[in-house]
Amino acid sequence: MPKVSREKTINPQMAVGTPSKRKVEVLITTTPYKGVSPNVPAPVIKPSLKSGPAPKKIAAKPKQQTLHQAIPQVLPQLKWIELPTSLTMENASSRFQIREFILRFTSIMEPSIPRSQLAEFDDLGCGPDDDDDENGEMAPWMLVGLEGNALKHVQTALREIRASGNNLSKIWGILAQMRDLTEDQFSFPDPLPLPASATVYNTRTMRSSKELNSGKPLLVIGHTAQMIPVVEALIEVALRTPTVREELEHGFTKAKELTRDVQKAVKEENERWDAERKSLELQKEKDNNRASEIKSKRTAHKMRINDLECALKLVMPAFASRFAPLGTDQVGRTYWVSSPGIVERKAALDFIASTSLSKKAKTQVAESCSSRKWPWFIAVWGKSTRAAGGKGAEADDGAPERWWAFTEPAEIRKAADWIRIDARIDPYAPLELDTNKPLASLVKGLNEYATLLDWRLKVDKYGGFAD
């Protein structure tokens, strides 16, 4: 039975001995508890004569969307472009490593490599527009820059290589002799056999007396791809030399200096625009036609800031210590991003130094842009995905493992969305707190590359500053 309390209202006159009036009794009940006997009548609550306004109803809080509801469930349809090459991932990875090493340490190589030859490193012979499906078409790899090691035999070998006239067979003979004389310091494999498809027009080679007496067949080097294992092993030797270690430390310092220079330039540009904007707004009060001019100059200001920030991103790979793939998705496909070529790097450095770029330099950058060159697309090794609308990003079982490319920024973003949706990655969660950090890092890297590629493909990049 509900509890009932009685409260007595007493006339104040009763306290001083005056005759009392009739008492007024008010029944106040509490909320009936669960399980009240049905035979007990419900208590009557008499409303107060001075009742206040009815309490406001509190609206129910909307239910928060779950991550499953917030992230679209339909996987985007990807445009997989087949790269016309029969290179395996191992073979292509070797070429990536050689290219990145040459571009990274070209400043300390003597004699220096001509810029025209450095530009050839952007084309590994298997871009999206290539019709040639030969394995191993590469630019000539320069076997120089190892003078950080003061061994007598290495210095002798380098002098002979420079005098060889880039004859690959002669170069290998010199290296093989150096390897025999310095077995404790150097260990690298023999060149690959001559490809069956290669044609050697000049078969005249010089053989040492040791080769003639060994009874081994003559190893003819008629194709640059044969030397890849040798060059790759020499790179590992060079990375242990004092000269390369000093250059890595210098690069770290240079990267910090460039970052400070760009931050200073951005600050100065923001201050310049702030003063100009205030002046334009004062003029706008007198002339309403100034609105379009303010909008135009604000756009130019944003372009200047973007040019500076993107130029810094272009040159940062020039100071990296190692090169590695961008990442691997949930089904094992590996994503590769080649660093910008020597022409783009030089233009970006010149722009940061003077916040301007000559018309000639702009033309050279425009000419270096090509969808057939590896620095201008995302390369993917693995199997393509099934058609859009599937339950997950499973690889197509009927497709072979091969090289694919995403050449357009929009397609690269789709690839990032595909990985993010399939892996249930929260796009708003901090990267360091994401439980699936490797995939989240891959998605972030793809989106950042797409944004930078958008800028690199613009005709008017570096256009925010006067020549």
Query: What gross morphology would you assign?
Result: globular
* N-to-C series of helices and strands: EEHEHHHHHHHHEEHHEEHH
> How widely separated are the two ends?
93 Å
Biggest sheet: strands side by side, in what order?
Answer: 3-7-6-5-4
Report the β-strand fraction as a percent range: 5-15%
Rg over CA atoms, rounded to whole Å, is: 37 Å
Judged by helices, strands and strand pairing, the structural class is: alpha+beta
Q: Please provide the count of β strands.
A: 7
Biggest sheet record:
5 strands, antiparallel
Q: Helical segment tally?
A: 13
pLDDT average, as an integer? 75
| Helical content (DSSP H or I, runs of 4+) | 40-55%
Can you walk through the features of this model?
The chain is of the alpha+beta class. It is 42% helix and 6% strand. A 5-stranded antiparallel sheet has the order 3-7-6-5-4. Strands 1-2 form a two-stranded antiparallel sheet. A hairpin with a 5-residue loop joins strand 4 and strand 5. Helix 2 packs across helix 7 (228-238). It is globular and about 85 Å long.
Summarize the structure.
It is built from 13 helices and seven strands.
Topology overview:
Layout: E1 4-9, E2 24-29, H1 67-70, E3 81-82, H2 89-105, H3 115-120, H4 152-162, H5 168-181, H6 209-214, H7 228-238, H8 242-286, H9 291-315, E4 327-328, E5 334-336, H10 342-354, H11 359-368, E6 378-382, E7 402-406, H12 409-422, H13 437-456
Antiparallel strand pairs: 1-2, 3-7, 4-5, 5-6, 6-7
Helix pairs in contact: 2-7, 4-5, 8-9, 9-10, 12-13
